Amino acid sequence: MPAEEAQAILAASDRRPITPATVWQMQPLLERIAETARRGFATAVEEIYVGDIAIAAAIRDGRGRPLGAINVAVLRSCVTSEEGERRYGLMVMETAQSISQACSTFG
Asked: What are the angstrom distances between the C-alpha of 53 and each of 6, 32, 57, 62, 92?
């Protein structure tokens, strides 16, 4: 998705913190989106639930448009965010790519 489109969606969204760790302000969100695009997956540490680490990757249609996402959530008491990324980043990215390829055959 083009950066301008992502920014327009964020501007129209009800952005507010859910936990003290929630990234909700425009500039940090845009930086996270750019980082996610470079890495191929996103990590959220206690942004929705305290004690939760989520590692996620986008599922896309045949045109590269986002359809959804797949994620793995782990307890922060069991792994660090770096360990979670090491263990699950590639897994969620490859799984999302596989689902995306299957979705591309449907248009």
From this structure: 23, 15, 14, 29, 14
Total-model pTM: 0.88
**Domain 3-104 carries which CATH code?**
3.30.450.40
β-sheet bridge partners, residue 50: none
Per-domain residue ranges of the chain: 3-104
Is residue 64 within 8 A of residue 103, CB to CB? The reply is no
**If we measure between CA atoms, which residue out of 75, 77, 57 comes closest to residue 67?**
57
User: pLDDT digit string (tens) for 43-54?
Assistant: 999 999 999 999
At 55, list the tokens.
């590692």
